[in-house]
Design a protein that fits this description.
With 177 residues, the protein is mostly helical. Helices cover 74% and strands 0% of the residues. The chain has helices at 3-15, 17-28, 31-47, 58-77, 87-100, 104-115, 118-129, 134-141, 145-167. Helix 2 runs parallel beside helix 4 (58-77), helix 3 (31-47) crosses helix 4 and helix 4 packs antiparallel against helix 5.
Length: 177
């Protein structure tokens, strides 16, 4: 692994420690055991650094590794009443965690939104987050509703181009864009 890739991997690994610990703790219910499993997970993640595909979300991959470490710890713990003995429960909790993990598309959209001018960010915020009408935004900007509609069209086009540049053509689910 080249130094730049290693630095990026370390940044991903250190950046998700709180999420990994919270996930492991939620599955085991014991802080001490969760810390041990976190350390085991970190060792495995480091040993598998070459297997990581940077095109995929790191946290989701790391949680998958943690899931297997939790299963191994669960086997070691045997009959401890705090451990989930039903593998379906672990998988359901994992699915819930992954649902809360931002996708590459969401990350790219957030980055692209931050690249917009403050004026364009304000228009997007007002229209999509605050559900303001085009005419209301137009009045605030001394523009017609049609002019604001054209601006929004151009902003969406810029965002689509930015996301495609970040993810590649159809890098995410096109229906999400």
């Amino acid at each position: 692994m080249d130094p730049e890739s290693a630095a990026s991997y370390v940044q991903h690994l250190t950046g998700c420690q709180n999420q990994l610990y919270a996930y492991i703790y939620s599955l085991l219910g014991n802080a001490e055991i969760a810390l041990d499993v976190l350390q085991e997970t970190n060792v495995v993640l480091w040993s598998k650094a070459a297997e990581y595909d940077p095109a995929r979300p790191f946290v989701a991959w790391a949680l998958g590794v943690a899931f297997h470490q939790v299963r191994a710890a669960r086997t070691r713990l045997g009959r401890d009443r705090l451990v989930f003995h039903n593998l379906n429960t672990l998988e359901t909790l994992t699915d819930d965690w992954l649902a809360d993990t931002p996708s590459n598309l969401e990350i790219a959209l957030d980055d692209c939104l931050n690249q917009l001018s403050p004026k364009n960010q304000q228009i997007v915020e007002r229209y999509y987050k605050q559900s303001e009408s085009l005419s209301s935004i137009g009045k605030a900007l001394n523009r017609t509703a049609n002019a604001v509609g054209v601006m929004l069209h151009r902003i969406r086009k810029k965002l689509a181009q930015c996301i495609e540049a970040a993810l590649g053509p159809l890098g995410g689910n096109p229906s999400e864009i």
